[in-house]
Amino acid sequence: MLTCDDIRSIALALPQAEEQPHFDSTSFRVKGKIFATLGDEPRATLKLDPEDQHNLAQAHPGVVEAVEGYWGRNGWTVVQCAAMDAQTLSGLMRMAWVNVAPKRLAKAFVQGA
Predict the structure, then answer these.
(1) Fold category of 4-102 in CATH
(2) Under DSSP, is residue 46 helix (H, G, I), strand (E, B) or coil?
(3) Domain spans of the chain?
(4) Residue 73, φ and ψ in degrees, nearest 5
(5) pLDDT of 113
(6) Residue 31: left if φ>0, alpha if ψ -120 to 50, beta else—which one?
(7) Residue 20, SS3?
């Protein structure tokens, strides 16, 4: 079972990732853009491509699901991290990071991975 500290470690392991407050929660950003937020349960909200979001929700019912409304239609996705292993969450976190990182930085990361 993943903890909030595990989620934080996974997010901050990504290139140029920074932790910053976001309203009443914690956000993780690359070059000022949010790619993930951290909830209390532990739960993460990730910025995924809407197609990836749909496919992942189908593959992980009850664990990965779109945020309701407008935000969800634009890729914001809730992940119940207590029901996920670190390797899977790390992959999802990388997807979210690549989705918002500047193209040159994302390309260098993907090619180096």
Answers:
(1) Aspartate Aminotransferase, domain 1 (3.90.1150)
(2) strand
(3) 4-102
(4) -65, -20
(5) 66
(6) left
(7) strand
Give me the average pLDDT of each 10-residue run along the chain (113 residues): 92 97 94 94 94 96 96 96 93 97 94 79
| Residues counted in the chain | 113
d(CA 22, CA 58): 29
What whole-number distance in Å separates Cα of residue 57 and Cα of residue 34?
21
Answer for the pair 78, 47: CB distance below 8 angstroms, yes or no.
Answer: no
Which residues in the chain belong to E strands, given as ranges? 17-22, 25-30, 33-38, 43-47, 64-66, 76-80
Whether the Cβ atoms of residue 9 and residue 16 lie closer than 8 Å to each other: no
The two beta strands, 64-66 and 43-47, are unpaired
What does the pLDDT read at residue 1? 81
- What's the CA angle centered on 8, arms 83 and 64, to 5 degrees? 30
19 touches 28 (CB < 8 A) = yes
